[in-house]
Amino acid sequence: MLQQDIDIDDINPAHYLQQKFGWTLQRIAEEMDYSDSIVRQWSCGYRNPSRRAKKDAYRVYQEHATK
Fold first, then answer.
1. What's the domain count of the chain?
2. In terms of residue numbers, what domain contains 53?
3. Do 58 and 7 contact (CB within 8 A), yes or no?
4. Is residue 58 part of a domain?
5. What is the structure's pLDDT at 11?
6. Is residue 2 part of a domain?
7. Least packed by Cβ within 10 Å: which of 24, 40, 43, 56?
8. pLDDT value of residue 41
């Protein structure tokens, strides 16, 4: 779980990282090592992020939340 009340399966990585850090979609793509296109598709709802992508978002969150 990302936080006590958020299940990793329920998040959209693009929305979550934008909300937490105020990052652009391009920055999220760079931090997660995904293409801009994929991250934009998650953000617009054209494509659902995989479980792996959600775990990668959690890893990125953990790395930057302590900075």
1. 1
2. 10-65
3. no
4. yes
5. 81
6. no
7. 24
8. 96
CA gap 18, 21 in Å, rounded: 6
**21 in a structural domain:** yes
pTM over 0.90: no
Q: What tokens does 44 get?
A: 């617009």
Structure tokens at 22: 């105020």
Q: What is the pLDDT along the chain (67 residues), one digit of tens a residue?
A: 444 455 777 789 999 999 999 999 999 999 999 999 999 999 999 999 999 999 899 899 989 987 7
Q: Give the pair of three-digit tokens for residue 57.
A: 């978002």
Write down the residue that tokens 């801009």 correspond to. 36
According to the model, what pLDDT value does residue 60 have?
93
What does the chain look like in DSSP terms, one character per residue?
--BTTB-GGG--HHHHHHHHH---HHHHHHHHT--HHHHHHHHHTSSPPPHHHHHHHHHHHHHHHT-
